[in-house]
Amino acid sequence: MRSNGVPQALKQCFDCVRPGGRIVQVGMFPAGDVTLDLARLVTREVDYLGSFRFLDEITDAVNLLATGTDLAPMLTYTFDVRDAETAFRTALDRKISNKGILQFVSEAEP
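^ thats the sequence. predicted structure below, dont judge the formating
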C-alpha cells in the first residue's frame, strides 16, 4: 500500500514560509483535487517547486528498517539531530560524505 502526502501539511508550509522563501514538495498527494490559497504565494513572492523523488521505494525502505536491516555499511556518518547544521555541511562535501542520517533518539533513551 502506497502512502501519499497530506494536503494539510502543505497548507502549514504556506503558513510558515517567509516572504520570498521557497517550498519544495517532494512526492505526491492523494488522487483528487487539493485546495490551497495560491494567492498567498503570489502576494508573498514564494517559490513553490515540485520534485517527484520516490514511487514505491520509500515503502520498501521503511519495511527494511522495520525488519532491523543494518544500515551501518551504507552510511558515512550519523549525527545527533542537535548537530543537524554540521550534518548538512558534511553532506555538501562529496569528498567525505555519501549517505548520512540524523538520529532523533539518543542511544541511551528507551
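Strands lie at 22-26, 47-51, 77-80, 100-103.
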